[in-house]
Every structure is written in C-alpha cells, then in structure tokens.
User: Which sequence fits this backbone?
C-alpha cells in the first residue's frame, strides 16, 4: 500500500470517529453522600458531559421514587442543580438538552429593575416588578458554543477531508486543528469548572455562605461540603484521543510521502 493511501485511510477513519465522538459523553461527574445511599444511587448523583450539552447520568437506575417522576430513573441533572443551589452556584448550562417547555433557559438569571432609591419599579400593565435579565455573559457564551457544536464538528470533518485530498504542505494546519479535538473539550471544561467554583453569588451565597470560592475537581475524587465528588473521562474522550493519534500518524506518513514524491 502506498503511503498516500495509508495516510488517507487513517485520516478517513479519524473523520468517522469525529462524527461518532459528537454523540458520546466525554466526561462524567458524580456526587456521593450519606443522603444518597448506593442502594438507591449506585453511581451517585451523576451527570454526563457532551460537546453539545450536559445530560442526566442516572437513566435506567432505580433511584428514589419521588425523583423519578414517572421516568425510568431520577433526573440527576435537576438534582445536581438543586444541590448546587445550596452553595450559591449558578445553574448548569444544559446546551441542546434544554427544556423546550420553559420560556427561558434554566440557567437564565433575573433581577428586578429598581429606581434611584432602590425600590422595585412596577410595570403598570402587569402590576408586577419589571424583571431584568442579568445572566452572566460566560454562561451565555457557553450555551452558544454548545448549540453551535454540530457546525463546529462539521468544520472539523471538512478540515480532515481537506488534509486527505490536498497534497500541499500547508494543509497540515487543518489536520492539526482537528487533531486537538479532546483538548478543546478539556479547555472549556476546566475553565467553566473554575468559573462556577469562583462565582458563588447566586441566591446571596446559598445556605452554606461559609464556603469560599474553590476549584472543583477536574480528575479524580474531591470534597465539597458533605459531598464526595468524582470526576472522570468517559469513552467519548478516549475516542477523541484516538482521533488525535490517528491524525498525528497520518501527518507523519504524509510528510514522508511528500518528501519521497509519491
């Protein structure tokens, strides 16, 4: 097999895996505590992270009946938000997994409009205080990234195809951009863990006002209040690493192929 055919085959496999990765969980986080016994929550209060949103990680398990609400399992994304509420943490941005029945996304934050004396301004039409959207801009940006993820992944696949079928050396750049796939996720994930942990101002600081800003655990186990946290990569992340490896090997083979004039 010629080197050209080899690097094209590797790049083609990488392109297919990029599409597969889009639909798979990249990371998962779980909270364990005495109030959530393993007999009811074998994996704890768990949520799964994909490129396009955050999802309930408790489906199909026999969690507490009052949380199940007629579903197969508890809505642990909702439960996680309830837990975060107590330390003043903002709601998790669900991305494309948003509740379409809501007028506004769950992570939106509203305040009331006030006059110079600090009194609420009443809307004469509704006789209710006028609400103002004060949602932090980083959360709105994250939501936009998640909703744009299908188009971003389409660009990644297109870049791999350009690398595959264009012999020019400059076409290594698109392959490098696509090869960094798992690191884009890690960068966004780590930044927003930091952001959430350092912005505990919602609800006036929550019930545990003594909790200082902190960096949630990125990998492994940690401790927040009475909860043990677990944060680990999921199989989507390992497939994304395979994409990186395939494209690196393909680039090396293509470079050698260009030198030899194949």
Assistant:
């Amino acid at each position: 097999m010629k080197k050209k055919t080899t690097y094209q085959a590797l790049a083609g496999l990488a392109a297919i895996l990029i599409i597969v990765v889009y639909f798979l969980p990249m990371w998962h986080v779980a909270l364990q505590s005495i109030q959530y016994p393993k007999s009811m929550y074998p994996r704890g209060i768990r949520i799964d992270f994909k490129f396009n949103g955050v999802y309930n990680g408790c489906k199909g398990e026999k969690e507490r009946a009052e949380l199940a609400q007629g579903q197969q399992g508890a809505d642990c994304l909702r439960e996680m938000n309830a837990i975060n509420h107590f330390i003043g943490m903002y709601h998790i941005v669900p991305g494309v997994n948003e509740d379409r029945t809501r007028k506004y996304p769950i992570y939106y934050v509203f305040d009331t409009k006030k006059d110079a004396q600090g009194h609420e301004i009443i809307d004469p039409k509704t006789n209710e205080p006028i609400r103002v959207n004060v949602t932090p801009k980083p959360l709105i940006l994250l939501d936009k990234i998640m909703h744009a993820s299908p188009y971003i992944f389409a660009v990644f696949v297109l870049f791999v195809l350009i690398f595959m079928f264009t012999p020019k050396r400059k076409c290594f750049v698109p392959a490098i951009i696509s090869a960094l796939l798992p690191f884009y996720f890690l960068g966004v994930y780590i930044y927003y863990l930091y952001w959430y942990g350092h912005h505990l101002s919602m609800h006036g600081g929550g019930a545990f006002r003594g909790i200082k800003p902190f960096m949630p655990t990125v990998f492994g186990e940690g401790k927040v209040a009475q909860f043990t946290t677990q944060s680990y990569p999921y199989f989507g992340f390992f497939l994304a690493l395979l994409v990186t490896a395939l494209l690196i090997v393909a680039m090396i083979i293509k470079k050698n192929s260009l030198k030899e004039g194949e």
User: Anything to note?
Assistant: The chain has a mean pLDDT of 85. The first helix runs from residue 3 to 22. The chain has seven helices and nine strands. The first strand starts at residue 27 and ends at 32.
